[in-house]
């Protein structure tokens, strides 16, 4: 099949097929609604719009049957070009159990914006077992270690109103090959 044929194909993807892509400006409201349905701290819809535009290179959505069922937002800290900081990961109830969160994170590593990334960071509260399992699985897939330390503390940063956020670092690691991401589960 020629490239022109692939690009103009109008076939519909099979039901329940999940497609990964960069977020677009029009995705902000759907992402905001997805996060709202979860237990995550919610951001403003405007924040999600900025993530879909200003930070699109380091964010990804997963679509199933035309609906956004997965979201990962991240950015590269200006002073640390080898770090991808994962801000938020969310998967719809209907798409869970497929390793989607891990696949979304790993898919970012193949973006041109992440070419220099050798470490992934995030913050996680001590009681968030799902996130600890996710990031542990990402570290294992990348063949590296996960370290943690208190970062934003309950009393010093949250005035007692939020649990301490632990800084998680995965790495250093080598960039995985594209096929390794496809098979990540």
UniProtKB/TrEMBL annotation:
<protein>
    <recommendedName>
        <fullName>L-2,4-diaminobutyric acid acetyltransferase</fullName>
        <ecNumber>2.3.1.178</ecNumber>
    </recommendedName>
</protein>
<dbReference type="GO" id="GO:0019491">
    <property type="term" value="P:ectoine biosynthetic process"/>
</dbReference>
<comment type="pathway">
    <text>Amine and polyamine biosynthesis; ectoine biosynthesis; L-ectoine from L-aspartate 4-semialdehyde: step 2/3.</text>
</comment>
<dbReference type="InterPro" id="IPR016181">
    <property type="entry name" value="Acyl_CoA_acyltransferase"/>
</dbReference>
<keyword id="KW-0808">Transferase</keyword>
<comment type="similarity">
    <text>Belongs to the acetyltransferase family. EctA subfamily.</text>
</comment>
<dbReference type="GO" id="GO:0033816">
    <property type="term" value="F:diaminobutyrate acetyltransferase activity"/>
</dbReference>
<dbReference type="InterPro" id="IPR012772">
    <property type="entry name" value="Ectoine_EctA"/>
</dbReference>
<dbReference type="Pfam" id="PF00583">
    <property type="entry name" value="Acetyltransf_1"/>
</dbReference>
<feature type="domain" description="N-acetyltransferase">
    <location>
        <begin position="18"/>
        <end position="165"/>
    </location>
</feature>
<dbReference type="InterPro" id="IPR000182">
    <property type="entry name" value="GNAT_dom"/>
</dbReference>
<keyword id="KW-0012">Acyltransferase</keyword>
């Amino acid at each position: 099949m020629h490239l022109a044929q692939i690009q103009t194909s109008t076939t519909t993807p099979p039901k329940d097929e999940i497609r990964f892509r960069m977020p677009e400006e029009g995705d902000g409201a759907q992402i905001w609604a997805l996060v709202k349905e979860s237990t995550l701290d919610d951001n403003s819809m405007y924040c999600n719009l900025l993530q879909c535009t200003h930070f699109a290179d380091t964010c990804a959505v997963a679509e199933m049957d035309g609906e956004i069922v997965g979201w990962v937002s991240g950015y590269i800290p200006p002073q640390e070009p080898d770090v991808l900081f994962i801000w938020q990961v969310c998967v719809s109830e209907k798409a869970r159990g497929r390793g989607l969160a891990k696949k979304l994170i790993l898919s970012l590593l193949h973006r041109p914006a992440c070419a220099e990334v050798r470490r992934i960071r995030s913050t996680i509260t001590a009681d968030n077992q799902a996130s600890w399992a996710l990031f542990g699985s990402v570290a294992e897939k990348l063949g590296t270690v996960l370290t943690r330390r208190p970062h934003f503390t309950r009393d010093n940063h949250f005035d007692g109103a939020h649990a301490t956020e632990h800084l998680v670092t995965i790495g250093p690691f080598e960039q995985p090959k594209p096929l390794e991401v496809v098979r990540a589960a």
